[in-house]
Specification:
about 300 residues; mainly alpha; about 70% helix; transmembrane; Probable membrane transporter protein; TM_pro_TauE-like
Length: about 300
C-alpha cells in the first residue's frame, strides 16, 4: 500500500515504513536505546531525503522514551532536578543546532554534513561497544583495572555555583549537566537522535552520577528536548513529515513491546555485541554512500 509523503515529496510503501519503525522499536526494546541513530540512516537508505529523515525521526524517540520514564519513576530511578537542568541546556542546544541546520541547508551541504557526522559518531560508538562486549564475553582478556576511579573530572569540580543533586548523590555546578544537555540538543537537531547513547556514558564517567538514576534521568531530558526539536524543525527548517512520523511511531511502539520481551531470553553481553555490529555496519554503509559514486549517475534509454 503506497502512501504519499508531502514534505518528502515522494510515495512510499506504508507497510514497509511501519515495519522499519517496528524493527527499530524491537532494537530499542532489546538494547534500551531510543533508536533514532538507526532510524535516520535506514530512512536515508530507503531514499528519504536526509533533512526530512532527521526531522521526522524524533517523534519515534519521544514515543519510545515515555514508557521508559514511567517505569524508572516507579522505582525511584529518576533525578528530576538533574533532568530539569539538562533540559534547559538541551533546549538552548536545539536552537543552536537549528541554526547550524539552516546554514547547512542554505549552503546545500546538509546531506553531506549529516552523513559525515553519522559516520564519525556511529563508528566511534560502535567500536567502543564492540570492545566492551568482547571483553565482557571473555573473548579477549581485559587490561588491568585502575586502582581507583575519579568521582568526576577536575574541571567539573572547579565550576562555580554548586548545587546538591540528592538522587544522583552529587554536589556539583549545574553548568556541567547543562553543557551536556546543550551538546545533546545539538545532536538531536542535526542527526535526529535522542542522544542517550552519548549522554549515559557522559553522565556516569564525566559527572559521576549514580548508575541507578542515569538511564531514567537521561530519558526525561530526551523526551523534552526531542519534543522541542520537533517543534523547532516544524517552525524553522519545515522538514517534519507528519505522515512519515506517524507511520514510524506506530511501528516503533508495537516493536518496542516485543523487543522488551526478548530481553529476558537473550544474554545481555551477546545483545550488546550484536548491537555494536549493527552500528558498525550502518556506519560503513553511510561511509560507502559518501565516498562511492557509480561511473554514470544517469542513463538514457531509446524507445
Amino acid at each position: 500500500m503506497d502512501i504519499y509523503l508531502p514534505i518528502a515529496n515522494m510515495s512510499v510503501n506504508a507497510l514497509l515504513i511501519v515495519a522499519l519503525g517496528g524493527l527499530v522499536g524491537i532494537l530499542s526494546g532489546l538494547f534500551g536505546v531510543g533508536g533514532g541513530f538507526l532510524t535516520t540512516p535506514l530512512l536515508i537508505f530507503y531514499g528519504i531525503p536526509p533533512s526530512v529523515a532527521v526531522a521526522s525521526a524524533t517523534t519515534q524517540i519521544i514515543g519510545a522514551s515515555v514508557s521508559g520514564v514511567m517505569a524508572h519513576t516507579k522505582r525511584g530511578g529518576v533525578d528530576f532536578r538533574m533532568g530539569g537542568v539538562m533540559i534547559v541546556g538541551g533546549l538552548f542546544g536545539s536552537l543552536a543546532g537549528a541554526g547550524l541546520f539552516r546554514l547547512a541547508q542554505a549552503s546545500g551541504q546538509i546531506d553531506v554534513l549529516i552523513g559525515v557526522l553519522y559516520v564519525l559518531l556511529l563508528g566511534s560508538i560502535g567500536a567502543l561497544m564492540l570492545k566492551d562486549a568482547v571483553v565482557a564475553l571473555g573473548w579477549i582478556k581485559p587490561k588491568a583495572a585502575p586502582e581507583t576511579r575519579r568521582r568526576h573530572y577536575r574541571f567539573i569540580a572547579a565550576l562555580p555555583m554548586r548545587w546538591r543533586f540528592y538522587a544522583s548523590g552529587l554536589y556539583v555546578s549545574p553548568l556541567a549537566p547543562m553543557l551536556l544537555g546543550f551538546a545533546a540538543g545539538i545532536l538531536t537537531v542535526l542527526l535526529g537522535v535522542g542522544g542517550g547513547f552519548v549522554l549515559v556514558p557522559a553522565m556516569i564517567y564525566i559527572l559521576g552520577m549514580a548508575p541507578r538514576v542515569v538511564v531514567g534521568t537521561s530519558l526525561v531530558m530526551i523526551i523534552a528536548v526531542s519534543a522541542g526539536t520537533t517543534m523547532i524543525h516544524s517552525l524553522t527548517t519545515r522538514s517534519v513529515d507528519i505522515v512519515l512520523a506517524a507511520l514510524l511511531l506506530v511501528g516503533g511502539v508495537v516493536g518496542a513491546q516485543y523487543g522488551a520481551r526478548l530481553t529476558t531470553r537473550l544474554k545481555p553481553d551477546l545483545l550488546r555485541f550484536s548491537l555494536s555490529i549493527i552500528i558498525i555496519l550502518v556506519a560503513l554503509r553511510m561511509a560507502l554512500g559518501l565516498t562511492y559514486r557509480p561511473d554514470e549517475i544517469f542513463s538514457i534509454e531509446y524507445f
